[in-house]
Write a structure and sequence with these properties.
Layout (H helix, E strand, L loop, with lengths): L1 H11 L7 H30 L1 H5 L3 E6 L5 H9 L3 E14 L2 E10 L10 E3 L15 E4 L1 H7 L6 E4 L2 E11 L13 E5 H4 L12 E7 L6 H11 L6 E4 L5 H39 L1 H9 L4 H33 L1 H7 L10 H27 L3 H5 L11 H22 L2 H32 L7 H11 L5 H36 L3 E6 L4 H8 L7 E15 L2 E2 H5 L9 E5 L7 E4 L11 E5 H7 L6 E6 L2 E11 L12 E3 L10 E7 L5 H11 L4 E4 H40 L1 H13 L4 H38 L8 H21 L2 H5 L2 H6 L3
Parallel strand pairs: 3-8, 5-7, 14-19, 16-18
Antiparallel strand pairs: 1-9, 1-10, 2-3, 2-6, 2-9, 4-7, 5-8, 6-7, 11-20, 11-21, 12-13, 12-14, 12-17, 12-20, 15-18, 16-19, 17-18
Helix pairs in contact: 1-10, 2-8, 2-10, 2-12, 2-22, 8-12, 8-15, 8-17, 8-22, 10-12, 12-14, 14-15, 15-16, 15-17, 15-24, 16-24, 17-22, 17-24, 17-25, 22-25, 24-25
């Protein structure tokens, strides 16, 4: 090793000539992963540090459809230092002739237990008492601006008068409640207790937030609470995981972005491999001399590995500095954009993770050319032909395989998303395989087409260069194609979602979802809708909310995991006849009055592992109902119409207070008139405009698409770096080629056309494969994840293909200018 180190040290004195691409590829990939990891770490730290503020207390008891009984409230108060009660629901806010959906938070005098409610103008929460005998309200600025309200203006909420006191600047507990389909309103709980908004069967959530008394722990209180409220429909949460939805979303998005960053490193690996190959090619005579003087393959390999390790460490360090510096420089912007209060700073784990990925990737792609060259004999190395066409020795192949397994294992372990990690690596490997096949196919086609180019010297020269032994097609197509593939997939998914909404919404989806319809209001509401000829269809169903707590007598989450059906409460209905097509089992008779029976959505039943005859326990209004699954139904949730995962026989819910829901199908032009009429006649109902709900989801998807596109742009930048490196490395070969062609009578224009043709063909190959991979990925995501129809979007596809051709053309032609300007005599006299 001392000899290897001495050789390496002397070689390193030559500087970084030829290693700029190596360093840039490694630096960009590591920087992207480090930046994503630091932001994710900041969000995690913010969630942990601000847990009590985000939750609104140390712990929270949730009840659906009801408030705690006096005995339950006494027990909660006895085990807490402070208690605050909140009720959340949706309702319609009316100001003049304008109506808007709002997410209402009704609070008591103890709110907020933790954190500070910031208002404009600054007021204490006690200002909810209002003025002039009219209760007060705090409104989200978006809601106030939409309705033209300012402090002192009056409006109605659910038919009850309120006065606006202030605009909400910041709620301390606004994170983690899921997607809110309307801006926030805060009112006093006392102001709505006697009104229709909390009538039996109305949809609302009650939360009791507490702070711990001295000497109590969350574990102890949780154990006692679960035992006390077993079977009562209570859901527990505490400050240790105050915003699980935000945490889950952040982790999965960050994981996906890290995997996109790894794709960028894979692209950089192509550049690393090409750089190391070119470097070893230049050092072939040095290696041959060392071999002739008795140096072993191990000594030579160690000397070169030491050099690569030093350069790799420099590239990784530069990447860590770039990633950390970019995050710190943008810390203010990042903090403002985050869903939780965060302090962006340096953290060891994400930097270590990025460095580990960078080191493993550099080692994998550098060992291939190094192992291949170190196995050659000295005589072969002294010759300029016959190098680099054989596989590395078995030992090197085993080591490379072990490093690939270590990279995949590290990504799966550190991300915690094994399935996503394996799918991403399989996708990257598949894309690289397709791109490699395309490059090899292009070389073969070019060789076969050479005879057809007789009489066309520019085309003949381009085909000969593409099909020749020193062709640049493989690194160009691999590096550029993978980055374009990721961008193509993002473009197809985004266009597919927008197209599905534009195509399907007017024909399939309802205009409004109406909830909180009291049973005695259903017939008058339907009669009122008959006065609107534009209304083409109205569907109704009774609805309650329930939590599936057990499957076959065991806790549901122990049986089926963290499935979305088990995550919180779900809509439950009852019906004498089926609404959807049965896929298995039989429906109960219309007058059935025996033990409870259930019909479950077929797709969700498969995901939960449920089958006919299984027993499920659902808690509704604090009452456990155990029902046997007797049928499965084909429920299509993609239409945005009425659909329930769980339907029970009517007798199972006899006497339970409920409300009805309705979907109204009407053209967009008549939506406003229908809403105004219904809101005036039934002020307690809540109308959710389906277009607005889909717009909120689309907005969230757009944010994800932009984040992924940003990460993909780093991959593309890495690919362009490799492309420039390949073009720069081939500058000498192009100079010799241009000199020979000039000597044989070729003009500069013909030579330039030849260079442009080979670049265009390589770029077209990368672009076409990227379009195919993007289309396949877009179809898979839309079909399997979004459950939406897919149609190929030609716009993004054409842009990707043209982008690939343009990128290779620019890089190739820029590095063709100097070879074209060189004098043939000077070039041909040079020693090869």
């Amino acid at each position: 090793m001392s000899l290897a180190w001495r050789i390496a040290r002397r070689e390193l004195r030559g500087g970084l000539r030829g290693f700029r691409v190596f360093l840039l590829c490694l630096m960009l990939g590591v920087a992207a992963i480090a930046a994503v990891g630091l932001v994710r770490g900041a969000i995690r730290a913010g969630l942990a540090d601000q847990g009590a503020v985000l939750l609104g207390g140390d712990a929270q008891y949730d009840f659906t459809y009801r408030r705690a009984t006096a005995e339950e409230r006494d027990w909660i108060a006895a085990h807490a230092a402070q208690v605050s009660e909140l009720v959340e629901f949706r309702s319609m806010l009316n100001a003049g002739d304008e109506f808007a959906l709002t997410q209402v938070k009704a609070v008591d005098g103890a709110y907020p237990l933790t954190g500070t409610l910031v208002l404009d103008p600054p007021l204490p929460p006690a200002a909810l008492a209002g003025e002039g005998g009219v209760p007060g309200a705090f409104l989200d600025p978006v809601l106030a601006d939409r309705l033209g309200l300012k402090p002192g203006d009056r409006f109605t909420l659910g038919g009850q008068a309120f006065v606006m006191m202030a605009r909400i600047v910041r709620e301390p507990d606004s994170t983690g409640g899921g997607i809110a389909f309307g801006p926030r309103s805060i009112v006093s709980l006392a102001a709505i207790e006697a009104g229709p908004l909390l009538a039996p069967g109305s949809l609302y959530e009650t939360q009791y937030r507490v702070t711990l008394p001295a000497g109590a722990t969350l574990d102890t209180l949780k154990t006692a609470a679960l035992a006390r409220f077993e079977g009562a429909g209570m859901r527990w949460s505490d400050s240790r995981r105050a915003a699980p939805g935000a945490e889950r979303f952040t982790d999965r998005l960050a994981t996906f972005l890290v995997l996109v960053g790894l794709a960028g490193l894979a692209v950089g690996g192509v550049g690393i491999s090409a750089t190391v190959s070119a470097w070893i090619e230049r050092k072939a005579e040095t290696i041959a001399t060392l071999r002739a003087l008795g140096a072993t393959s191990g000594t030579i390999r160690a000397a070169f590995l030491i050099q690569l390790a030093v350069l790799g460490a420099a590239g990784i360090a530069a990447g860590l500095i770039l990633g950390a510096g970019a995050v710190l420089a943008a810390s203010g912007t990042i903090a403002r954009a985050m869903p939780v209060p965060v302090e962006v700073g340096l953290s060891v784990r994400p930097l270590f993770e990025a460095a580990l990925y960078g080191a493993l990737t550099a080692a994998i792609f550098a060992l291939w050319p190094l192992g291949r060259m170190s196995a050659l004999r000295a005589a072969t190395l002294y010759r300029s032909t016959g190098r680099g066409r054989r596989l590395p020795p078995a030992g090197s192949l085993v080591l490379i395989g072990a490093l690939v397994a270590a990279l995949v294992g590290a990504a799966a372990t550190l991300s915690g998303e094994v399935g996503l990690t394996l799918a991403a690596f399989a996708g990257v490997a598949g894309a690289l395989g397709l791109l490699a096949l395309a490059a090899l196919g292009l070389r073969g086609l070019a060789r076969a087409a050479i005879p057809l180019a007789q009489g066309r010297p520019a085309l003949h020269a381009a085909l000969a260069a593409i099909g020749g032994p020193r062709s640049e097609v493989l690194p160009v197509v691999l590096s550029l194609g993978l980055g374009l593939s990721v961008l193509s997939a993002v473009g197809q998914i985004d266009a597919g979602l927008r197209g599905a909404i534009a195509r399907d919404l007017p024909q399939v989806a309802p205009a409004y979802f109406i909830i909180d319809i009291q049973p005695d209001q259903l017939d008058p509401l339907l009669a009122r809708l008959e006065a609107f000829p534009e209304v083409s269809r109205v569907d109704t169903a009774p609805m309650l909310r329930g939590v599936i707590t057990e499957i076959n007598g065991r806790p549901a989450r122990e049986v089926a995991g963290d499935h979305w059906v088990l995550r919180g409460d779900r809509g439950v209905t009852f019906a004498a006849t089926p609404r959807e097509r049965l896929t298995a089992g039989t429906w109960w008779p219309e007058e059935y009055a025996g033990p409870p029976q259930a019909s479950f959505a077929a797709k969700e039943a498969v995901e939960l592992g449920l089958k006919l005859g299984d027993r499920i326990t659902v808690n509704i209004l604090g009452r456990d109902i155990e029902a046997t699954i007797t049928s499965l139904r084909d429920v299509d949730f993609s239409t945005a119409g009425i659909g329930f995962v769980l339907t029970l026989n009517p007798a199972a819910l006899a006497g339970a207070p409920h409300t009805d829901i309705a979907t109204i199908y009407a053209p967009e032009a008549s939506e406003a008139a229908i809403l105004r009429d219904l809101a005036r006649a039934f002020p307690n109902i809540t109308a959710i405009r389906v277009r607005d709900a889909i717009a909120r989801v689309s907005e969230a998807l757009g944010t994800i698409a932009r984040a992924v596109a940003l990460a993909a742009s780093v991959t593309l930048a890495t690919g362009f770096t490799v492309l420039i490196g390949a073009a720069a490395a081939g500058e000498g070969a192009r100079a010799r080629e241009a000199a020979l062609l000039k000597t044989l009578g070729a003009t500069r224009g013909m030579i330039l056309r030849s260079f442009a043709l080979r670049a265009a063909l390589a770029g077209a190959a990368a672009g076409i494969i990227a379009v195919a991979v993007g289309a396949l990925a877009g179809w898979a995501v839309l079909h399997f994840v979004m459950e939406a129809s897919y149609r190929f979007a030609p716009g993004p596809a054409v842009a990707i293909a043209l982008g690939g051709i343009g990128a290779v053309l620019v890089a190739g032609l820029v590095f063709a200018l100097r070879p074209l300007a060189a004098r043939p005599a000077r070039v041909l006299r040079e020693n090869e």
